[in-house]
Structure formats: structure tokens, C-alpha cells
Amino acid sequence: MIPKKDVYFVIPAYNEAKKIGQVIQEIHSLGFKKIIVVDDCSSDTTAQIAEDLGCYVFRHSLNRGAGAATKTGFEAAKELGATYVITIDSDGQHDPKDSLKLLKYAEKYDVIIGSRLIKPKGMPLIRILYNRIGSIFTYFLYGIYVRDSQSGYKVFNRKALYRIQIKFDRYEFCSEIIHELKLKKLSFREIPIKVIYTTYSLSKGQHLLNGFRMVYKMIMRLFL
Amino acid sequence: MILLQFIFIIISILMILNLLVQFKNNNLKLMQFLLWGVVWLTLLISTILVDQLSRIISFFGITRPVDLFIYFSLITLFFYMYKLNLKQEMLNHQITEIVRENTLKKGLKKRK
Asked: What is the pairing mode between strands A84-87 and A154-157?
């Protein structure tokens, strides 16, 4: 059993004042007290809310994207001495209770991926399609297949935290992490998670058009 | 000499002169100077020696000298697009690193 004091949550956030408070409170109610919120230069009160709720708040002075914010969160977690890091979305689409389930496997594997696509019940068809395409492209480009390569709900142990190098600033970092699992020979397992899709969470995150830009960037990166 | 040839010759000469001035003032690196020099010289030569060049390039399956210039320009443009993309990626990465460094410094300092 992993002690909760060793676990840091990393929440990259951009203009999430409506939801972030609820996400933080739910994590707190599970007994996790160490939460790092990386505010990616929001124009609303995201950072203030997180600070008022006792989180470690790191604020980007320029908007750099979800990948960049996650990496800042990783660096902060290293500095603060984290043994395990859980990344979770700030828009409320992930159920913090699932982190207990993911942590059960974290002692055996370097990375646990919370997969929305093992039991995609309640997930909009377009999102299923988008994420499946994302996973196929990840496999095609990097030669490693996971069912939900675009999931933002993951657990990393210390070894993974130090070995994984995130270079992409935007959403491409999800696929990059999968690539890193292969390159750095890190063990991983996918565990089904619940996804809470609301009008709000659907308006956030990745969109199909973004996907084309992501694929272009990922292909370009192979040559740059 | 047709009017179009005359215009091309003038443009090429002006561009070569401009290149020389820019290189002399250290606004261009040697590689850039050479690359663009070759581009404008190709245009100049292919415009003046249309007939002679036509015979030479026909060996390569290119029928008109102006096509040679167009192919060459396309390659140069793609090369520069690639270089700009590379530079943009590098700058983006550097900006992110600076932002991260400041963010961590401020965030951790506040905690102490």
C-alpha cells in the first residue's frame, strides 16, 4: 500500500475556475494533501482558487500548453520530493476516486495509464473515434500500442518521473509519453477509469481539428 | 531579346548587388549568401544563355531554362521553410524553458 503522503497530484490548468475547486476538494476528501496546480497563464481565478485550497501553485507567465504545464508540474514534484505523481485533468472529466484503483498497481509498474477506452461507456462516439485514431497514429509513429494514448490520467513512479522527458508543449505530449515508455523501457499497465463527460468537459480538451495539427507536429518532429 | 528576358536580367542583377551589400554589412551568413547567389546567378545565366542552356538541360529532361529556375526555386523555398520551422521550434522550446525556470523559481520561493 502506497502511503498517501508520498503521492503528489499534478494538475495542469488553463481557465478552469469553474471546475478546479471541485476537483481539488474531491482529491482532498480522499486523503491526498499534496496537490501541484500548474496554472498555464489563465485569465480567470484558477490560480487563486487553487492557492486558497492549499495547493502548491506554479503559474506560467505565458501560455505554453498542456505538455509544458505537465512538465513544469513534474519538475516541481521532483523538487518537492515526490515518490509518486498522479496527473489528472482539471476540467472534472476524471473521477479522483479512480486514483486509489490506479495506485494499487503503481508498486508493480512504472506507469499506470487510466484508460477511458477499455470500458468506454458513456463516452461520446466522436471522442472514442478521436482517441482510437490518436492511439493508432501513436503506434504508427512510435511502434507502441496502448488503447488510450491520449489519456491525461496517469500514475508515475519516481523512476518514470526522472526518466520521462517531455519535449512537446501542447497535447502531443500524451503520445510522447507513450513513446518514452518504449524508449526508456518503462513498464506500464492500462487500467479502466470512469469518465465524466459534461457539456463543460466536452468543450475543453482535444478536438478533431487539433488532431491534424498534432499529427503534423509529431511527424515533423521525427525529422527535426 | 524579349521584354521578359530584359526584366529578369535587371531583377537578377539588382538582387545580386543587394546580396553583396547585405553580405558586406554582415546581414547574411556565408551559406545564405552563397545559396541565394546561386539562385540569382542561375536566373541571370539561364535568361542570357537561353538557347545554349536549352541544349544542355534537355539531357536532363528539362525542356525550358525557366523550368530549371523554377525547380531550383522550389527546392530552395522548401529548404528555407524547413529551416524556419526548425528555428521556430527551437525558439518555442527556449521560451518554454525560460517560463518554466521562472515559474519554478517563484513557486518554490513562495513555499519557503
From this structure: antiparallel
Residue B79 grid cell:
529548404
Alpha carbon of A220: minimum distance to chain B alpha carbons (Å): 9
Q: In chain A, helix, strand, coil percent, each to 5?
A: 45, 15, 40
Tallying the residues shown for chain A, one arrives at 224
Instruction: Identify the contact set of chain B against chain A, taking CB-CB distances under 8 A.
Output: 85-86, 89, 92-93, 95-96, 99-100, 102-104, 106-108, 111
Cα A43 to Cα A16: distance, rounded to the nearest angstrom: 10
Residue of B nearest to A39 (CA): B103
Name the nearest CA neighbour of A129 among A203, A192, A207: A207
User: ipTM surpassing 0.90, yes or no?
Assistant: no
Give the span between the Cα atoms of A144 and A14, in whole angstroms. Answer: 30
pTM as predicted: 0.82
Distance, CA of A144 to CA of A141 (rounded, Å): 8
Q: In the Cβ-directed half-sphere of A97, how many Cα atoms lie within 13 Å? A: 3
Contacts of A58 in chain B (CB under 8 A): 103-104, 106-107
Angstrom distance (rounded) from CA B110 to CA B112 = 6
Chain B environment of A38 (Cβ under 8 Å) = 103
Q: How far apart are CA A134 and CA A208, in angstroms?
A: 10
Length of chain B (residues): 112
A222 Cβ under 8 Å from any chain B Cβ: no
B53-95: pLDDT as tens digits? 888 888 888 877 778 778 888 988 898 888 898 899 899 999 9
Q: What is the DSSP letter of A109?
A: -
